[in-house]
Design goal:
The protein is mostly beta strands. The protein has one domain: Immunoglobulin-like. It is built from one helix and seven strands; from the N terminus they run H-E-E-E-E-E-E-E. The strands form two sheets. A four-stranded antiparallel sheet has the order 4-3-6-7, with no helix packed on it. A three-stranded antiparallel sheet has the order 1-2-5, with no helix packed on it. The protein is globular, with a radius of gyration of 15 Å.
């Protein structure tokens, strides 16, 4: 189990792909991040309140997650969205205890859907650190 965890951490940073901030769709067939509130807690970790808009159509096509990455595409957090939000658009979900190295001043938040994956506009967040 420990070997698998180490291998997973090693391969995730090797195969991280730098996000293309210029190529995206604004169509609601792709999950779109509409707003992010990032706050740093006293222990140095972060909470992200992320608002997502998507043309959810029940279980066959819905926004199913959002991620926080550095500018090189290394994932720092993933928030699973466990069900469709057909009648709640946009909706906001939070995740806390996200550790971001002190030298990072900007991150990217992207939402995805279960049909098209990522493809909506990346949302660049400037971190206001304590």
């Amino acid at each position: 189990m420990r070997t698998l965890l180490i291998l997973s951490l090693f391969t995730s940073s090797i195969f991280a792909e730098k996000p293309d901030l210029a190529t995206y769709s604004t169509a609601l067939d792709f999950a779109q991040v509409t707003d992010v509130l990032a706050t740093q807690k006293s222990d140095g970790s972060w909470c992200f309140g992320t608002s997502v808009r998507h043309n959810d159509q029940g279980w066959d096509h819905y926004a199913d997650g959002w991620q926080v990455t550095d500018l090189d595409g290394n994932e720092m957090a993933f928030r699973l969205l466990g069900h469709p939000h057909d009648n709640e658009q946009p909706f906001t979900r939070s995740q806390c205890n996200i550790n971001i190295p002190s030298e990072i001043s900007q991150v990217i938040v992207r939402a995805k859907c279960n049909k098209h994956g990522y493809g909506g506009k990346p949302f660049v967040v400037n971190l206001n650190k304590r």
